[in-house]
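Progress narrative, Year 2. Work on VanZ-like domain-containing protein from Saccharopolyspora thermophila advanced from sequence curation to structure prediction during this period.
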Amino acid sequence: MLDHYRTQLTRIPFAVAALASLVVLFTPESGVPTAPPGTDKVVHFVLFAALAATGRIAGFPTARLLPGLVAYAAASEVLQGLLPLGRSCDVVDGIVDVVGAVAGWSVVAAARRINGASSR
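Result:
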């Protein structure tokens, strides 16, 4: 029974990251703070790295997590261009999203390998 609650608790960080991504990706341009050039790429990378890392920790299967994040990256960019947010669709942002997702997934995978090797 405790395993059920432990599993549910590992999903809370993913839910927080997902909600944060909705706010960050779909805030109208008027609500986006000004920042130095390239800052948006860093935000995209970190956001998708967080989604992938927390998703992996939550136990979502890689076969669904990574393709889902790629689809989310593409859809969010298309929607930014279509919705009346004053934002634009940027293919480079989508690529940075995917690279961030792979990086976040890889960090958790590497940490698990290291922890598994050190516990032997």
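The chain has one domain: 2-118. The longest helix spans residues 91-118.
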